[in-house]
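request received
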Amino acid sequence: MERKYTKEHEWVTVDGDVATVGVTEYAATELGDVVFLELPEEGSTVDQGAAVGTIETVKSVEDLYCPVSGEIVEVNEAVLDAPELVNQQPLEDGWLFKVQMSEPSQADELLDEGDYASLIGG
Amino acid sequence: MSANVEPRRWGASLEPNLFELGRDGRRATVMPAWDGDPVDVTLPAAYLRTDPCDLPSLSEPEVMRHYTRLSNLNHHIERGMYPLGSCTMKYNPRLNEVVAAMPGFADLHPEQDEEDIQGLLCALNLLQDALCRITGFDACSLVPAAGAQGEFLGMHVIRALHLANGEPHRVEVLIPDSAHGTNPASVVLTGMKPLTIASGVDGRLDPEVVRAAVGPNTAGIMITNPNTLGLFETDIVEVARIVHEAGGRLYMDGANMNAILGKAHPAKMGFDVVHLNLHKTMSTPHGGGGPGAGPICVTAELAPFLPGPTIVEADGVFHLDDHEGECRPAIHAYQGNVGVCLRALAYILRLGGDGLERVAERAVLNANYLLRRVVDEGLLQVDHPDGCLHEFIATGRDWKEAYGVRTLDVAKRLLDYGVHAPTIYFPLIVEEAMMIEPTETESRETLDEFVEILRAVRAEAAADPEILHRAPVHTPVGRMDEARAARQPDLSWLGPCNCG
Ligand SMILES: Cc1ncc(COP(=O)(O)O)c(C=O)c1O
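response:
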């Protein structure tokens, strides 16, 4: 499945019209150890670019943005209990939430692997 | 009993707590038995104690030694340099302590009659006047218990003004991205909305960015001046004009006031409110969780919204005015942390106006001396290396690229050399930030030593980065697991059975 990226260092994978969202490996390393997460409510409707939660690390607290518009259909309960998953497996078990997209074309317009790599200077 | 006796290597073991040290029946003080008439206790039975209170039982010397050992485990300003940027860990002269401990102050009870506490009211009134003179404002409230509470009160006062003017829609507060995290947090607590604005490439606020961000819903702007990059906001007068024309008010976070004492007045820059961190600028003790004091000074327009009771003087007699019938905020009991205020007053009176100006000169000189040396000698990279006020921000970017060590590792290694780490990872807009503030109380020799320590740590990083990754190794405890401490805090001692 192709992975898309945002300037806010989030990744998105799409299955049908459901997008799974997490933070990138780069963000997980740069942010430092995650100690607390605030994730959106299941069932809430969100707009692209809206702040939907926070990620707190030993260094700082950052907003989490929703890369696509739609309805939050699932949040990852496992990372709420064990936020270290975000550092250990940011791309797999450390995913954060899933969005039922209202405008699936938004996902196509996100950054691809190459764009993101040049954004982080890699 | 001869078990486990060994020479005490300091820092070899952490200190047991008072309950673990105590022995049943031991007492530091024995109260005489009550020999008066029985006291009629009218408390409801539910609130009366049936078992004796579980207090630790120790002798006075045991208690003294316990706290002395604890203080030895810690790093503090009386032990060594403490270049914690933005926090202004300056030395606190002992005279301040003597003044605050005078029985005429220390033995008072806040419920005493006004006529019994004239001396204290006079002292507090004097401090309010001094702070108004230092900031150029008209009225002062000593009540806030810390900088963050001063911000909260100050923003509340601005909100109250807009409400009184029939402008409840003014809820947007502009905050530069270099601000301390307490600024947006205080705004949210007052029910208003923080809006982040970007600081310019030179690290300062660009008036055009402010002009583009203000509008009919603008409640105001919060600016730290000098800002958290240690730079003076040179366009502040223009920014003030723009915000005032839009109907907003200007809040100054005065946490960095030690850089400009006597040199610049927040009121003349166009601010409407400022908070001062007495526990930074005025050399009263800081750290360990308080108590602190974050008084605010305001323009005459905002004075009616300050908390009551306020101190008023008539014919040399001081009176606490409750402002009956007015709606004034209450954020702290009585007049705030009075002991902290008294220390600040002692500091101000001892130094006088000229002395306070020299504080600012020295703070800026020391920071610039250090800045020049670490930059010119290739020890630290600084994005704005041309000069600073009381502090400067280095980036550990080059350490990361060259040696694979991060700012956290550098900070930890400094502890091994007996220096407290600078503030790290703040402000957030500087990568791998190290925020260094020597303060005016350090001598040139101490600053030189700090430079040599940095040089030694840099050499270690080049030779063997593992030394930094493993640091600290000479402190009572090694590298803390900060993530676990935040994820699974264990904050209460539940008795000896819990320690096994
Ligand atoms: C710039 C700035 N503003 C506000 C505060 C908050 O002050 P306090 O810790 O007294 O609440 C700090 C504290 O470090 C600060 O550095």
